Fold this protein.
Amino acid sequence: MEAYKDRVIRERNALDTKLAKLELFFYTDNFASLPEDEQGRLDGQAHAMRLYSYFLCERIRAFPKKEKK
């Protein structure tokens, strides 16, 4: 695999791992104890991360496919 493709895939995987952890945090007592404005910022961060992940996935889908011989 070309180096840039590998970097994009690793970046998407790392981002998705962080996003999953953040989304799980939303269901904790620690999150519930945060001020409402901080909860909103974290929700906004998760939204931005989802959007970023979406575009990384779009880039990965657009990678040229190898032709079979």
Q: What stands out?
A: Residues 3-61 form one domain. The chain has three helices and no strands. The two ends are 17 Å apart (CA to CA).
